[in-house]
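Example S7 (structure tokens).
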């Protein structure tokens, strides 16, 4: 939620994504900087934060490499929100993190911020209309799933399926 984090004044790392459509969407939702996976994201974050690091880093991929990268991107006293679904163990480098006072939260998205986000949405502070990129009737559910499963080629962000 780049727009929501901008409202709070937090400095967050740029979204890193393979699909150009998702990078473009990140820009539409308020990201100032976006990065392809081959970008040295650590160097980029250091450059835009004067070496401090990001206030909040969100790990949403669920791989050991992305989790470990997130822990290097966060500033001292910052937060790593781990919402990715991990299928393999990830190393928590306490030898590096203990002195930095990092807060790491895990789990699926909770409802803690839901009232704030709904208030912002109701007040017109969050424009989420561009998130739904594809719409299907229920009879085309399998096609909708295929479109959503291949965002590199379809440009899908969110797919809406409604009853016919």
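Recovered sequence:
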């Amino acid at each position: 939620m780049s727009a929501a984090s901008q409202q709070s004044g937090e400095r967050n790392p740029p979204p890193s994504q393979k699909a150009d459509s998702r990078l473009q969407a990140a820009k539409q939702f308020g990201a100032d900087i976006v990065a392809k996976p081959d970008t040295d994201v650590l160097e980029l974050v250091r450059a835009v934060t004067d070496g401090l690091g990001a206030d909040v880093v969100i790990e949403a991929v669920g791989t050991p490499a992305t989790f470990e990268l997130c822990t290097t991107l966060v500033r001292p006293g910052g937060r790593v929100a781990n919402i990715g679904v991990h299928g393999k163990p990830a190393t928590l480098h306490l030898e590096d993190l203990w002195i930095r006072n990092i807060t790491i939260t895990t789990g699926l998205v909770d409802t803690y911020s839901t009232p704030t986000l709904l208030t912002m949405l109701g007040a017109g502070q969050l424009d989420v209309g561009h998130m739904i990129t594809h719409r299907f009737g229920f009879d085309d559910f399998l096609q909708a799933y295929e479109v959503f499963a291949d965002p590199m080629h379809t440009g899908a962000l969110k797919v809406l399926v409604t009853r016919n």
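Notes on this example. The chain is about 35% helix and 20% strand.
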